[in-house]
């Protein structure tokens, strides 16, 4: 019981610290696979931002479902590894299985794990749904369920099929 209580308190605390619905995205500058800069201002919106790590078993289990949602909706899914050891090569190799995802990579200004810290992400996967104005409308710490994600995309103003 103590272990469960500790997990519940830690989960609630981590959500309380993260960027919350209604708040704008923190500033960042990362690069897409073609080397083009991506910032909150240049991102296509509505959008989904997923923080992950290549070794994360929950991420591996979640990505096929997220990718199906990206395919079905046409909403851009930006994926950012919060693992400092996930090199550009590791990320791009991993993303070959998920061509609808847009991996964001280190720039001269920012590293992906630094951006995760600005979002106050404490684990992975963490998923943020962003509306047309660049504000967070939903946050999922852990797996994002399909129906809840689709509902959040509607709240973000996505035109769903």
Q: What is shown here, in short?
A:
The protein is an alpha/beta fold and 161 residues long. It has a single domain, classed as Glutaredoxin, CATH 3.40.30. The protein has helices spanning 2-17, 57-73, 88-94, 112-118, 146-155, and strands at 30-31, 37-38, 47-52, 77-81, 101-103, 126-130, 136-141.
Task: Outline the structure in words.
This protein is an alpha/beta fold and 161 residues long. It has a single domain, classed as Glutaredoxin. It has helices at residues 2-17, 57-73, 88-94, 112-118, 146-155; strands at residues 30-31, 37-38, 47-52, 77-81, 101-103, 126-130, 136-141. The strands form 2 sheets. Strands 5-4-3-6-7 form a 5-stranded mixed sheet, sandwiched between helices. It has a two-stranded antiparallel sheet with strand order 1-2. The chain is globular, with a radius of gyration of 15 Å.
Cα distance spanning the termini: 44 Å
Q: CATH topology, what is it called?
A: Glutaredoxin
Please outline the major beta sheet: 5 strands, mixed
Mean pLDDT: 90
The arrangement of helices and strands along the chain is HEEEHEHEHEEH
Low-confidence stretches: 4-15
Helical residue percent band: 25-40%
Give the SSE layout.
Blueprint: H1 2-17, E1 30-31, E2 37-38, E3 47-52, H2 57-73, E4 77-81, H3 88-94, E5 101-103, H4 112-118, E6 126-130, E7 136-141, H5 146-155
Parallel strand pairs: 3-4, 4-5
Antiparallel strand pairs: 1-2, 3-6, 6-7
List keywords for this structure.
alpha/beta; Glutaredoxin; two-stranded antiparallel ribbon; single chain; 161 residues
